[in-house]
Amino acid sequence: MTDNGMKERRAALVALIEEALDARLPGADTEPVRVHRAMRHAVNGGGKRLRPLLSLSVAEMLGLDPRDCLDAACAVETAHTASLILDDLPCMDNAAERRGRPCTHKEYGAATAILAALALLSESFHLVASNAERLGGPERAVAAVALLRDALGTHGLVGGQHLDLLHTGGAPVSLETLTSIHGEKAGALFVASALLPGVLSGLDAAGLDALRRFASRLGLAFQISDDLIDARHGGEDAGKCTFASLLGADGAASE
After folding, report:
1. Nearest 5 degrees, angle CA 189-CA 191-CA 196?
2. Which has the closest alpha carbon to 111: 81, 93, 97, 91?
3. Terminal-residue alpha carbon distance, the chain
4. Which one, 75, 83, 208, 213, has the greatest CB density within 10 A?
5. d(Cα 210, Cα 108) in Å, to the nearest integer?
6. What is the spatial distance between Cα 206 and Cα 93, in angstroms, rounded to a whole number?
7. Is 102 helix (H, G, I), strand (E, B) or coil?
8. How confident is the model at residue 252 (pLDDT cuts 50, 70, 90)?
9. Which residues contact 197 (CB under 8 A, 6 or more apart)?
10. CATH topology of domain 3-254
11. 237 with 99: CB under 8 angstroms?
12. Domain spans of the chain?
């Protein structure tokens, strides 16, 4: 496929994702209105949609119709968005803006932001379970839910965020620790994004392991790239160790 062809295919998949996300979110005028609007504010705030794009791309690679995996792709994005809402809170990173707009807690208050994040996480599990059961029955639904649980739990995103908070403003962080932080905080959802279509398709253990290794490296590469972009534009978080601050721009790029 040519570069233009890849760009066109990506644009088509992003449009499909945006339409699906909008359809799966509660209406802005349905009760509880404030929570539903906070959910929409967070999800519809832009973003690259890398994780659902990864899911749909893997689905295509495995011979599935991307539309058959849309719920799972949306599940990963709503879970990711929930994590951003929580990450931005005053008790966490205390961010004011996300993607050029006020963070959810700045627009709707911390309490409503937390409720919106919980609602998005709840929706994520519903979406992934229903998608897996529809394609492969109860056993695949259980496997898909367990996969998302692992990505979000204390050995995944939550564990990575905990480590990140522990090392913010503290002693210098080793490369091993920093890699572990982002392998859990950022990488876990990349892995889930790639593995979910595999689970939905009934891919064997060797295939799932190959997807896991690929997505883990992709997640790390994304984080390093993100750190480099922030460093070049003066957007690094004060007190936080990044690959760019630890290794320097050239060292981080070579990783």
Report:
1. 95
2. 91
3. 28
4. 75
5. 42
6. 38
7. strand
8. low
9. 55, 56, 58, 59, 62, 64, 69, 72
10. Farnesyl Diphosphate Synthase (1.10.600)
11. no
12. 3-254
DSSP state of 98: E
Cis peptide before 32 (omega within 30 of 0): yes
Distance of CA 23 to the CA centre of its chain: 19
> Which 8-state DSSP code applies to residue 236?
P
CB neighbours of residue 254 within 10 Å: 9
The confidence score (pLDDT) of residue 247 equals 67
Enumerate residues 6+ apart whose C-beta is below 8 A from 114.
85, 86, 89
The rounded radius of gyration (Å) of the Cα atoms in the chain is 18
For residue 215, what are the CA distances in angstroms to 3, 33, 74, 151? 22, 37, 18, 12
* Predicted confidence (pLDDT) per residue in 131-168, tens digit: 999 999 999 999 999 999 999 999 999 999 998 888 87
Helix axes 70-88, 157-166, angle to 10 degrees: 20
Extract the tokens encoding 17: 């994702």
Nearest to 222 by CA among 11, 50, 43: 50
User: Are 178 and 243 within 8 A, CB to CB?
Assistant: yes
Residue type for position 173:
V
Q: Which tokens hold the place of 250?
A: 């050239």
What would the mean pLDDT of 185-211 be, rounded to a whole number?
96
The lowest-confidence range among 4-18, 97-111, 233-247 is 233-247
